Structures are given as C-alpha cells and as structure tokens.
Amino acid sequence: MRIIESALEMQQTALVLRAQGERIGFVPTMGNLHAGHLSLIRIARQQAGTAVVSIFVNPTQFGPNEDYAAYPRTFAADRAACERAGVDLVFHPAVTEMYPEGASVSVTENALSRTLCGASRPGHFDGVCTIVAKLFHLIQPHVAVFGEKDAQQLRIIRRMVRDLRMPVEIVAGPTVREPDGLALSSRNQYLDADQRRQAACLHLALEECRRRFAAGMRDPRELAAAMRALIARHPAARPDYIEIVDNETLAPLTGPIVRPALAALAVRVGAPRLIDNTVLTP
Ligand code: AMP
C-alpha cells in the first residue's frame, strides 16, 4: 500500500494510473476509521481496480466553535486498517498541501445547504464541496463512495458533480450501525457510558417515525413531533434539529408526504453532536 502526502505526487500518480487504463475508486475520509468507512472501502474495491482513501481533517468544514482541534487523528491505526482492507493508496496531505498560502477560491452551494446541518453549521457544506472538488482533481477518481449517514452531504456532492460537470460517478453506501442502532461515528467515542446508552435515541426516533409512516401518518409535523417526543424521554439528548424535508430538494415540507421525504435529525448527547436520517417513501 502506497502512502502519498504531496498533492502534486498524488495527481501525477493518478494520471499515470489512468493512462495505464486503471479504474480509480475513491473514499474521502477524515480518518479515525471505523466499520462504516471500511464498508465504503469495500464498495470502492468492488467498483474499481485501484482503491484510494484520503485521510484529511478538513479545517474549512469546521465552524469557529466546532471540534476541529479536538477531532481524533489516528493515522497509524488508520493506515493499518487501510492495509488490512486492501486499499492500494492512502492520500494523507498536510493542510498546506490542500490550502496553499493565500488560497482564495472555493466552491459554494446555494440551495441544498440552506436546511438541516447547513442551517446550523454555516459554511460547512462550502468547506465540504471545496475539499471534495480539490480531492477529485488530485485523485481523478472514476467513482467516489459517500455514506448515506451524511444524507445532506451526499445530495450536495451529487449536485456539485452535476452542476460543475465533474466526470465522477457518485455511489452511496448504507449506514453501518451498532447492535442498538446507533450509527457508527468518530464522535461516538466521546460519549460516556450513560450518554452512549441514550445515544440510541436517534435511531429509535427514526424507527418510531418509520412505524407511524408505515401506519399511514403523512403529516410531516406529526411525524416530527413523534420523533421529538421520543428524544425528549432521553435527558442527555438535546436536539439541534428534527425535520422532515423533501428527499430531493431538502426543502421543508408544507403539506402531506406524497413523494420520497427525508427524516433527519441532529442531536447533542452530552457534548458530541450526532446525526442520523432515513428516507420515507410513500
Ligand atoms: P468522515 O470521516 O466522518 O468525514 O466520513 C467519511 C465518509 O464515511 C462519509 O462519506 C460518511 O458519510 C461515511 N460514514 C461515516 N459514518 C458512516 C457509517 N456509520 N456508515 C457508513 N458510512 C459512514
């Protein structure tokens, strides 16, 4: 397994691989790899002969009061996990490789990022789009794999690829969960034992929503209220948002659900802010 830290070397290597007819599959990550990331790597390996994983904690997608400095950086373990998972190449750049001194050009998304996490994390998705665009230029993937756990991110990346005519196929990987339903996340390790038990409430709320939807409930306000009531039974949980939006536009629903909707929530359990979602298809 090769490890590259230089942006130029990464791009030259990718261009050589392409010239040799290799198909490149790419999984962007911020490291601290868990079984969710590994499931995306498996998909990339099924889709392409060469699997590239980037490990980069991207400063521009963190707000000033967020956990950029504290975000777990575990490169030695990540590298070993990539090796075991059959990754061909790990791209692990320094911040200055991705953001040269004086960098002043970025990618902005102006519609899908207005709601959900975009509303509570201003600039977050512009940071995501900017880094993913740069990574695509360096890694030149034929296919890139993103997790459904970050549903809004996935939709925004698809929109960026469409709008900027990027020659990359985007593939979605299902959310990998703990036995009690909690979505795997690098931030789960900051939960103490009691918070960890209560953190299953995100999944329970989505299950409750799915049950009511299956039983015929179509009013997004009633469905959101049912989720809110379930979360409220968990004293360590403080909701940031609990919403039902259109699955394509991510706009809040004004009337009953008549086409696929996304039920999504962000909840602080202690300090960590956790997210989860499910699609409701009538
Ligand atoms: P991150 O390192 O948190 O930026 O995530 C890198 C990629 O892994 C993103 O595409 C995430 O959506 C995906 N991911 C994170 N958690 C999970 C999970 N539990 N199951 C599947 N994919 C995930």
Descriptive notes:
With 282 residues, this protein is α/β, with parallel strands linked by helices. The chain has two domains: 172 residues, Rossmann fold, CATH 3.40.50.620; 92 residues, Pantoate--beta-alanine Ligase, Chain: A,domain 2. It has ten helices and nine strands. The longest helix has 16 residues. Bound molecules: adenosine monophosphate. The site of adenosine monophosphate has 17 residues, from helix 2 and strand 5.
The CATH topology of the largest domain is Rossmann fold
What class, by secondary structure content?
Answer: alpha/beta
- Give the second-level CATH assignment, the architecture of the largest domain: 3-Layer(aba) Sandwich
- Poorly predicted runs: none
Mean pLDDT: 98
- Over all CA atoms, what is the radius of gyration? 19 Å
Q: Main beta sheet: strand number and arrangement?
A: 6 strands, parallel
What's the tally of helices?
10
Spell the H/E element sequence. Answer: EHEHEHEHHHEHEHHHEEE
How many structural domains does the protein architecture include?
A: 2
* Ligand kinds: adenosine monophosphate
CATH superfamily of the largest domain: HUPs
- Total number of beta strands: 9
The proportion of strand residues reads 15-25%
User: Strands across the major sheet, in which order?
Assistant: 1-4-3-2-5-6
Label the overall shape.
globular
User: Can you identify the CATH class of the largest domain?
Assistant: Alpha Beta
Distance between the termini: 45 Å
